[in-house]
Write a structure and sequence with these properties.
Number of helices: 2
Shape: extended
Largest sheet: 2 strands, antiparallel
Structural class: alpha+beta
Radius of gyration: 19 Å
Distance between the termini: 54 Å
């Protein structure tokens, strides 16, 4: 419809890459798969990490964007022997252990 909102069709995908050198900007794709309508980005990412880690002789270090810094992704990948470095949302507040009860409030 002329003048109406633009409609963009597309499919979500999940890409797992390997960075072969500590310095430089090369990233080599290992897995690039479509996220179907029956899957979630967290489920697809955890499935891909599980596939790749099962073929590696050492524990890997994986880097994730802020979207993956949530409980569903962490729970889905908790049993995978890989370290995860996850960027946190800028508006996220982290709290330490609770203080002793002051006798008032919640």
């Amino acid at each position: 419809m002329p003048g109406g909102p633009a409609i963009t069709l597309g499919h979500g995908s999940s890409t797992l890459v390997w960075v072969p050198e500590p310095k430089g900007s090369w990233a080599l794709p290992i897995l690039h798969e479509r996220i179907t309508s029956q899957e979630t980005p967290f489920g697809k990412a955890s499935e891909q990490l599980r596939k790749v880690q099962s073929h590696l002789p050492l524990r890997s270090i994986s880097l994730w964007d802020a979207e993956y810094g949530c409980a569903p992704f962490l729970l889905a990948t908790a049993d995978i022997p890989a370290d995860k470095i996850i960027r946190l949302r800028p508006n996220l507040r982290l709290f330490g252990p609770p203080l002793a009860c002051q006798g008032r409030g919640r």
